[in-house]
Amino acid sequence: MASKAIFFSFFIVSAVCLSSLAGFAAADADDLDRFQIQGSVYCDTCRVQFVTRLSKFLEGAKVKLECRSRTNGTVTLTKEAVTDKSGSYKMEVTGDHEEEVCELVLVESPDSGCSDVSKEAYLRNAAKISLTANDGIVSHETRIVNPLGFMVKTPSADCAAAFKEIGIVPDVTF
């Protein structure tokens, strides 16, 4: 009798464990096509297109995610976000976009004195992002994007000193 009870208990425990694992697998499969995108937007006070100690993060800046087909360039997804008081934004995207080129671009600055965006193709301020679970990235749900920056029209007079502190000698005069 005791062996039947042990066998029955083992059977019940095994069934519960297997059903739990099946539930986790189903949840993971659903999560593979859901992505959290996080990034930030700053004011580039030195017009160098990277964050310096003089940069200011912008509240209320608009960014846009745009995915395009690799074959014909057709826009397949567009989504916008606005930065919070720390200059950060978040957005959620669903669907696998492996066959598309996705990037985040600046749309609108809340600061009219810091609203320039480079028009030169080689200086285009955009952040490409992978939105597929089939890319080898371990974290399937969160994608961190490089900071994007609007530029002032004229660099700050403090830029030369800031660059000197970190050992950079710019090609331009401030």
TrEMBL record:
Pfam families the record matches: Pollen_Ole_e_1
UniProt keywords, alphabetically: Disulfide bond, Signal
Cleavable signal peptide: 1-27
Family: Belongs to the Ole e I family.
Protein name: Pollen-specific protein-like At4g18596
Organism: Camelina sativa
Gene: LOC104771829
